[in-house]
Design a protein that fits this description.
single chain, about 180 residues
Amino acid sequence: MKSKLIALTLFLSLFLTSCDAVDDLLSFTISNQASITIQSTSPINLPTEIVTPDVTTNSSSEFKNNKTEAGLVKDVKLKSLKLSITNPDGKTFAFLKSIHLYISTTDSDEIELAYQDNINSTSNTLDLISTDARLDQYIKADKYKLRTKVTLKETLTQDVTVKADMNFRVTADPF
């Protein structure tokens, strides 16, 4: 009886480990970028909304390059979202109190993508906290919209341009 229990435990652990290994083999990353301009006229301590131009996805070609198609994609999650100040030179995120990014398409409701509150950064790069939202319908679309809500903690003397580098982990079914 004891040997059957040990065998069952080994079988289950091997099975669960192999499922993760298969998911890793069927997973790949899609990267997109967007530019966000924070206006110097934004008020301090009040949330300000910024709508970016549509972000065109390259998902169809990425699916093809990874030998899959949109119909086989079963899970898409945000792996990382890194912000970098591109203009003006030498500017840091010290002016920013909080930032929240939302994603939507014409066919899908808006959901929160990533955020960071209580920012105390003296760097010109900032990693946001990814939500655990499923993003399949957004990444499968030809394009999506990003809306950014920022709260400033100091006055800006000029507009600040921020580049958002997004990496999405895509997992597809084998057939």
